[in-house]
């Protein structure tokens, strides 16, 4: 049995981490039985979530988890995609994970109100007298990681503009299709859904979330994916498409 380690439901989402969500959706797409448990980064071979335990083999990082599962079970999440589509899927995944995820992450961590109601509670298991220092240290580490990656070197307005540009590109690529490459979800749909749900959750307010809400096809896509993969999880209604918010056009 495969065990997937994650953070668990939080922030109005079935799973707090978009990367754990990505792996969980890919497990469902592969049709592989699994169980899910709460995990801590220090338990992971790479010091990060998600990681899986597959009959004693511990594999970390969502990309390498996918590679391991596809190889072991002779399955292909991109079956049906031609060589060009596979290349496009990889490019979209890198845009989302290496660029948009940082812009989205800044809205959770670097907007004080969002940090206080969200990630600050990651240390709630510690003794109460230690929590203020632990929260400060946690925020400092994450802020520095965003700075090293380059995103936190920009102004708030520039971060929103960069994130919105990735959303606009994804909206154009999706168009009117049910999924990014047609009727069936491919591996990259798990990534897109996870990161879109992370920015669209009403738990966190931010200018980037409001920009995301202006892309009617991305809002509808996220709702479809949520119904398909987490039918038990309550999610807001799809935003109706009207002339004031044409499909794919940000407000």
Automatic annotation (TrEMBL):
Limits of the Metaxin glutathione S-transferase domain: 165-225
Keywords annotated in UniProt: Transferase
All residue ranges annotated as the Thioredoxin-like fold domain in the record: 18-114
Signal peptide from the UniProt entry: none
Alphabetized GO MF terms: transferase activity
Pfam families given in the database record: GST_C_6 (PF17171), GST_N_4 (PF17172)
Name of the protein in question: Glutathione S-transferase
Annotated source species: Sorangium cellulosum
Name of the coding gene: gst
């Amino acid at each position: 049995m495969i065990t997937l380690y994650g953070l668990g439901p939080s922030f109005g989402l079935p799973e707090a981490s978009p990367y754990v969500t990505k792996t969980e959706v890919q497990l469902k797409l592969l049709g592989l039985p699994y169980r899910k448990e709460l995990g801590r980064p220090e338990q992971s071979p790479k010091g990060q979530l998600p990681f899986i335990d597959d009959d004693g083999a511990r594999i970390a990082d969502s990309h390498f988890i996918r590679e391991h599962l596809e190889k072991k079970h002779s399955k292909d999440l991109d079956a049906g995609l031609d060589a060009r589509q596979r290349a496009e899927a990889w490019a979209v995944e890198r845009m989302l994970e290496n660029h948009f995820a940082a812009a989205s992450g800044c809205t959770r961590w670097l907007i004080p109100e969002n940090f206080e109601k969200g990630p600050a509670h990651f240390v709630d298991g510690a003794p109460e007298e230690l929590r203020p220092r632990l929260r400060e240290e946690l925020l400092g580490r994450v802020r520095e990681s965003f700075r090293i990656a380059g995103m936190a070197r920009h102004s708030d307005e520039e971060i929103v503009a960069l994130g919105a540009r990735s959303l606009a590109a994804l909206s154009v690529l999706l168009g009117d299709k049910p999924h990014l490459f047609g009727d069936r979800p491919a591996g990259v749909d798990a990534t897109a859904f996870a990161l879109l749900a992370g920015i669209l959750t009403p738990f966190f307010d931010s200018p980037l979330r409001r920009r995301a809400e202006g892309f009617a096809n991305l809002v509808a896509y996220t709702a479809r994916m949520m119904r398909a993969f987490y039918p038990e999880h309550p999610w807001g209604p799809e935003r109706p498409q009207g002339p004031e918010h044409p499909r794919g056009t940000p407000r």
